[in-house]
C-alpha cells in the first residue's frame, strides 16, 4: 500500500511524504495516478480549501482518500471546503458590510453556525393581490427595497407538500398602488404548475408569498444576512451580528463552489472520515427560480399533467421534473465506499448517487443542509446504513432525508433521521428496495402530506422483487395531515411488516389515489388504527396488525423491534 499525504500547510513541490506533504488534493490525485496500484491519500487535519471541484474518473479507481488517523484515537479532522473566508468588514449602524466583488452565494456561516437570509413575513399592505405579472399592494414599503432584483418570494404550502422560491424583476408605482413584477420564466412556470381543485374549490397560481427574503431593508434580526448585487461585479455582503460577535475575531465563510467532489466511472474508490462543507447552489437565484413540486424534484417547464384524485379533486403535476443537485456526486461508479464522513453547511443535497452499482454509504453524519441528505437515482445495489440525518431541508423544505428513485436492490437500513421538514425516507418507483430497521423522529416539521417513511408507484412486479419495509420505528411525525408510514400514489408490490408507528397525525392510510395494488400490511404496531383499516381496498392485505393506544404498553410490546432499530454502535 502506497501512502501520499496532503496538508493545508504543505507544498505541491514536495514529495507528498508524511514530513513533506502536498498542499492540494489535485496534486495528490496526479501523484496517485502516476503511482498506480493501491494508493491511500491521507489528509492531515485542518481546512483544505478547494479552488475548484475535485474530479475523479476511471483513472482514479482503487484510490482511498482518508483522514489521517482514521479508526484510531489520534484521528484528525480534515475539512474539504468550497467556501471563501470573508474579510475587510466595515461596520455602520450596527451592520457589518464587506465588498466581495462578483461573489455569488445563497448561504453564510458564522463561526460554523448557519446564518439566515434576512426576510419579512409576507407582502406588506392591507390587501395585497396577485396579478398576471406579479402582485400589487397598497403599501409603499416595497418601493424602499434597495435591491429589488435580489429579492426572493417564498411560497410555503402552495400544495401542502410544496415550497417554491420566485425572484422579483421590478418594483414600481401604479397609480396609488405598488406593482411588483416577478421574474420570468419562474412566475409563468408557477402559474402553469400550481393549479388544483379540492371539494369543488379551484386554486390557481402560487398565491401570496409567505416570506420575502434578501434585501438590506430586511436586516432586523441578529444573525441574518443579505447579498446585495445591485452593482454588477461589486457585490456587498451585509450581516447583522449577534451579541458578542466581533468582525476582528469572528470567522465568516461564504460557500462559493456548487460541487466539492465528483466521482465518475471509477471503481473501488473510498472516502473515509472526511468532512465535506461550505458549498452553495445558485440556480434558484436566477430568473428560473425554484418551482418545486415534490421531494427533491422541481419544475423547469416542459408541460404539466392533471391527476384526478376523486370527485371534485385534482392536482396538476410536472410532465417531467429535475432533481436538486448534490454537492458530492457519484456517477456510474462501481463498489465505491463513503464511510464515517460528515456532510455539513451545504446549499443543496449532501450526497447524490446516479447510475452505477455497489456503492455503500455507512456511518456518516448529515446536518445543516439546504436540501436532502442522500439522493439515489437509477443505481443498483446501493447500501445506505448506520447514518445520522438531522437538520436538513433548511432552504428547500420539501426535501426528504433519504430519497430513492428508479433504483434496483437498494438497501436503507439502521439509519436515524430526525428534525426534518418533510419525509424521512422516500422511495419512488423502483425494484427490490429494502427499508429496514430505521428510526425516524421529528419528521414533517414544516410541510404536510408525507410521512416518516413514504413509498409511491410500482416497486417491482411481484412480492419477490418488490419493496420490503420492515422493523422501522416511526415516531413524532409532525404537522396536521401526515401519515407516519405512507404508501401512496399507486404503490404496488410492497410488504409492510413489523414496524412501529406512534404519535403521528395518522399512522397509515389504505385508501389513496391511484389505488394501492398488491400491498401487504402485516404484524405492525401502532397507537391508532390506520385510515381505512376497517374496510381495506381490494389491493391491500391487512392482517395481524396491533393497535395499542397506551404508550407504555406499546413500548413494552415493541421493545425488541425498538432495540434493533436505528444506528448501530460503531467501535
From TrEMBL:
Q: Which domain of life is it from?
A: Bacteria
Q: Which Gene3D superfamilies does this one have?
A: Single-stranded right-handed beta-helix, Pectin lyase-like
Q: Domain Right handed beta helix: where?
A: 349-509
Cite the PANTHER family for this sequence.
RIGHT HANDED BETA HELIX DOMAIN-CONTAINING PROTEIN, SECRETED PROTEIN-RELATED
Q: What is this protein called?
A: Right handed beta helix domain-containing protein
Q: Which organism is it from?
A: Streptosporangium pseudovulgare
Amino acid at each position: 500500500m502506497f501512502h501520499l499525504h496532503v496538508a493545508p500547510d504543505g507544498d505541491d513541490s514536495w514529495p507528498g511524504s508524511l514530513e513533506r506533504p502536498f498542499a492540494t488534493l489535485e496534486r495528490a490525485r496526479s501523484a496517485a495516478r502516476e503511482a498506480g496500484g493501491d494508493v491511500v491519500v491521507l489528509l492531515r487535519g485542518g481546512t483544505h480549501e478547494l479552488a475548484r471541484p475535485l474530479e475523479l474518473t476511471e483513472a482514479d479507481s482503487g484510490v482511498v482518500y482518508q483522514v489521517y488517523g482514521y479508526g484510531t484515537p489520534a484521528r484528525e479532522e480534515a475539512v474539504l471546503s468550497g467556501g471563501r473566508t470573508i474579510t475587510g468588514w466595515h461596520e455602520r449602524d450596527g451592520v457589518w458590510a464587506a465588498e466581495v466583488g462578483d461573489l455569488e452565494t445563497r448561504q453564510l456561516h458564522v463561526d460554523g453556525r448557519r446564518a439566515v437570509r434576512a426576510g419579512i413575513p409576507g407582502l406588506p399592505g392591507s390587501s395585497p393581490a396577485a396579478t398576471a405579472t406579479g402582485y400589487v399592494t397598497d403599501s409603499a414599503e416595497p418601493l424602499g427595497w434597495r435591491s429589488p432584483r435580489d429579492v426572493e418570494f417564498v411560497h410555503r404550502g402552495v400544495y401542502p407538500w410544496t415550497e417554491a422560491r420566485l425572484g422579483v424583476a421590478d418594483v414600481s408605482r401604479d397609480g396609488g398602488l405598488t406593482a411588483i413584477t416577478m421574474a420570468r420564466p419562474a412566475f409563468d412556470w408557477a402559474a402553469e404548475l400550481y393549479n388544483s381543485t379540492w371539494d369543488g374549490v379551484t386554486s390557481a397560481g402560487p398565491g401570496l408569498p409567505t416570506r420575502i427574503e434578501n434585501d438590506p431593508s430586511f436586516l432586523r434580526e441578529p444573525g441574518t444576512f443579505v447579498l446585495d448585487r445591485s452593482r454588477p461585479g461589486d457585490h456587498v455582503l451585509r450581516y447583522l451580528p449577534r451579541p458578542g460577535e466581533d468582525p476582528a475575531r469572528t470567522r465568516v465563510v461564504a460557500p462559493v463552489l456548487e460541487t466539492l467532489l465528483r466521482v465518475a466511472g471509477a471503481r473501488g474508490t473510498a472516502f473515509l472520515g472526511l468532512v465535506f462543507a461550505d458549498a452553495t447552489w445558485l440556480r434558484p437565484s436566477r430568473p428560473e427560480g425554484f418551482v418545486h413540486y415534490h421531494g427533491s424534484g422541481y419544475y423547469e417547464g416542459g408541460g404539466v399533467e392533471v391527476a384526478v384524485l376523486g370527485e371534485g379533486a385534482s392536482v396538476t403535476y410536472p410532465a417531467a421534473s429535475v432533481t436538486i443537485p448534490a454537492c458530492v456526486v457519484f456517477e456510474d461508479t462501481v463498489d465505491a465506499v463513503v464511510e464515517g464522513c460528515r456532510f455539513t453547511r451545504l446549499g443543496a443535497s449532501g450526497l447524490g448517487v446516479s447510475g452505477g452499482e455497489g456503492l455503500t454509504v455507512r456511518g456518516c453524519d448529515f446536518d445543516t443542509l439546504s436540501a436532502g441528505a442522500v439522493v439515489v437515482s437509477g443505481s443498483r445495489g446501493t447500501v445506505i446504513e448506520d447514518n445520522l440525518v438531522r437538520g436538513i431541508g433548511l432552504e428547500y423544505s420539501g426535501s426528504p432525508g433519504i430519497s430513492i428513485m428508479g433504483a434496483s436492490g437498494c438497501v436503507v437500513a439502521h439509519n436515524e433521521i430526525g428534525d426534518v421538514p418533510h419525509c424521512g425516507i422516500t422511495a419512488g418507483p423502483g425494484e427490490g428496495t429494502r427499508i429496514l430497521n430505521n428510526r425516524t423522529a421529528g419528521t414533517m416539521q414544516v410541510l404536510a402530506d408525507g410521512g416518516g417513511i413514504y413509498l409511491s408507484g410500482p416497486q417491482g412486479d411481484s412480492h419477490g422483487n418488490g419493496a420490503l419495509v420492515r422493523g422501522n420505528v416511526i415516531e413524532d411525525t409532525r404537522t396536521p395531515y401526515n401519515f407516519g408510514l405512507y404508501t401512496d400514489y399507486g404503490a404496488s408490490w410492497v410488504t409492510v411488516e413489523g414496524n412501529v408507528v406512534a404519535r403521528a397525525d395518522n399512522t397509515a392510510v389504505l385508501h389513496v389515489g391511484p389505488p394501492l395494488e398488491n400491498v401487504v400490511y402485516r404484524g405492525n404496531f401502532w397507537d391508532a388504527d390506520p385510515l381505512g383499516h376497517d374496510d381495506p381496498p381490494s389491493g391491500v392485505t391487512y392482517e395481524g396488525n396491533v393497535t395499542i393506544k397506551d404508550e407504555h404498553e406499546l413500548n413494552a410490546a415493541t421493545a425488541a423491534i425498538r432495540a434493533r432499530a436505528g444506528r448501530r454502535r460503531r467501535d
